[in-house]
Fold this sequence. Notes:
By secondary structure, the chain is α+β, with helices and mostly antiparallel strands. The protein has 16 helices and nine strands.
Amino acid sequence: MLHEKESLSHIINLSNEIASVKDIDMLLEKVLTIARQFVNADAGSIYIKEDNRLRFNYTQNETMQKKLPSGQKLIYSTFSIPINSESIAGYAAGCGEMLNIPDVYFLPYDVPYFFNKEYDEITKYRTKSMLTCPLKNYRDEVIGVLQLINAKDSNDDIIPFSRENEPYVMHFANSAAAAIERAQMTRAIILRMIKMAELRDPKETGAHVNRVASYSVEIYEKWAQQRSISITEIDKNKDILRMAAMLHDVGKVAISDTILKKPAKLDPDEYEIMKQHTLLGSRLFTDKYSEFDDASAIVSLNHHERWDGNGYPGYVNPLTGLPIVGYGSNKGAAVGKKGAEIPLLGRIVAIADVYDALCSKRVYKESWDEGRVLETLKSESGKQFDPEIVDAFFLSLNMIKAIAHRYPE
């Protein structure tokens, strides 16, 4: 009985831990990590329900991860499967029941679902035990599926998942479902703000902001790991940065259509007006109720500053647009922030935004080829961009390329 009380207390604490994560991508990573650790699973995946299909959103595999060079992440493709009785995840979602399978290669003859061996054949990974749990909200509706793979004993041998752990995993899955719905609502609100900007600026699409935000998180994580920043601090900052980076250009909603939709490069006067979007965006977060508001104001205001001090808007009061007294001026204009004077989040989003812009087609330019883009970023190290952030960008390049494919226009 004591063991049961300890397990229940532990799973409640873990449920409380995920409740603090706000961004949906960061949350899915956290949910899967915690669930795997609780049952000592080697691998796992999360599917999220979209209409009548399950979208493969996130995966982890400790065995495959150990085969990669130090510091690299497992790269995977997203896909979707129908909710029906053919697949294990689809069946669990359809019937709303947990499936605990000792060996997926030896399923009972009378079950309707089957195991797709294609992934195992490609990767040479052997899937054996599998615990598949529907994620149900408070209305008892399935919103996704948590799938845990290959439970391990103390010797790292693969064993079946314990039947005793099933109620605890189900309890955690229900808590995760509630947290996922809250995070989805937060993401939906942010994307609605982006859609408002998109009505004004065709370049400001959901795909663009998701790419920039995802690039920024990868760059930050690599930068932070090299400085031995704790995992707890990294996860907290990733959660905040992911959402804030999506809103880096939200201030464009207040810029004239004649400028935003001009099918050519802007003239100097138009460019001066366009530059105001940094101030206008930061003003949306003047009333700061959370760290997310603070981060969003920082990113909006600083993502066009340059490492060499030639960026904008510089040292200005965001509310008035006037230069801040004590920082001098350049013929009446504000002095640009330089080097480490630029907040870290602004320096990170700066390179993520430029990379995506150069890789994307615009009305006034074609997309650049990858070689030209990367050479440009290298040449701007110490000029437009923080050299350390440039290094972190290139260390993250494989993941950045995978993200680009995940969020196509």
